[in-house]
Amino acid sequence: SETLLEINDLAVSFSTQGGEVQAVRGVSFAVAPGETVAIVGESGCGKSVTAQSIMRLVPEPPGRIKHGSIHLNGKDLAALSDKQMRSVRGKQIGMIFQDPMTSLNPTLTVGDQLTEGILTHENISKSEAEKKAVELLNLVGIANPQERLKLYPHQFSGGMRQRIMIAMALMCKPSLLIADEPTTALDVTIQAQIIDLFKEIQEKTGVAIIIITHDLGVVAQIADRINVMYAGEIVESGTVKEIFYKPQHPYTRGLLTSVPRLDGDRSQPLIPIAGTPPDLFSPPEGCAFTSRCKYAMEVCRAYDPAVTHLSDRHFTKCWLQDERAEKPF
Ligand code: SF4
Ligand code: MG
């Protein structure tokens, strides 16, 4: 099948006064055109750093890509000049962050920001750019675009501002949209509307989406596949059905019990996962989840679990699924 984005064995570290933090430790996954892939995990698990690596936005130093490769449409992004990479960021990859105010200019009207952005990428007249700005606001479901374009960012609600950010990210018809915690700052009703908007946009434009979140519940409605990250690694990956109905890794199961149920049944209490992730200055020898895992065995402490495939697309990195774990080492 076709591949839009391919990440292979990516490792990223940050040097700090306390030593080197191994934020991403050997992450591999691919995204097909038009697909939605979610990256889910607690804060500090390496999900945002993975996204920044795709955009080549990891600050170096203190950050460093230790090894691995990222290909977009077959092109090695590491081989591009800064100028070429800026054009990839504008035209091929759009990015949406948690807080739209950090990316919107408070001193310019939304219309000026959109038309300016369009004009830096396209050689068209100002009035054509304004027409495109109106089309973009229509696409993201903002009514009366002509009037709204005259307003400043602070005159919009949080949900509306996120819609404007999405319009900005779609400006150059990217083939990939990366959304890092796009709904975290919003209340639950607005969250659902933004997720619906992503679905709608994907149907209309065919854009592929990587959505990053700490909340599995957010991605149930939209993702094709879910990568669960823990301590810098993907510990389980599968389709939404596989992750929600056949979770294998104890961490994934833990995440699921801390998420409201898909059918809205609130009778079961939500149980957060006890404990904290390991220190990534010196990741443990064995499985990084050992200290929080109620199934931890001797072998888990001693040896890093290998990847076990449960189906075509479903894999987990846990000794419980590895038949060798039965035998003493
Ligand atoms: Fe738990 Fe062992 Fe699996 Fe790690 S490898 S998640 S400690 S059972
Ligand atoms: Mg983050």
Automatic annotation (TrEMBL):
| Keyword check for DNA repair | no
Q: Which UniProt keywords apply?
A: ATP-binding, Cell membrane, Membrane, Nucleotide-binding, Transport
Topological category with respect to the lipid bilayer: Peripheral membrane protein
Where is each ABC transporter domain found?
Answer: 5-256
Q: Which Gene3D superfamilies match?
A: P-loop containing nucleotide triphosphate hydrolases
GO BP terms: namely: peptide transport
User: Mind listing the GO molecular function terms for this protein?
Assistant: ATP binding; ATP hydrolysis activity
An example of a Gene Ontology cellular component annotation for this protein is:
plasma membrane
Answer whether the UniProt record assigns the keyword Membrane to this protein. yes
Report the superkingdom from the record: Bacteria
Cell location: Cell membrane
State the similarity comment.
Belongs to the ABC transporter superfamily.
**Stated name of the protein:** Dipeptide transport system ATP-binding protein
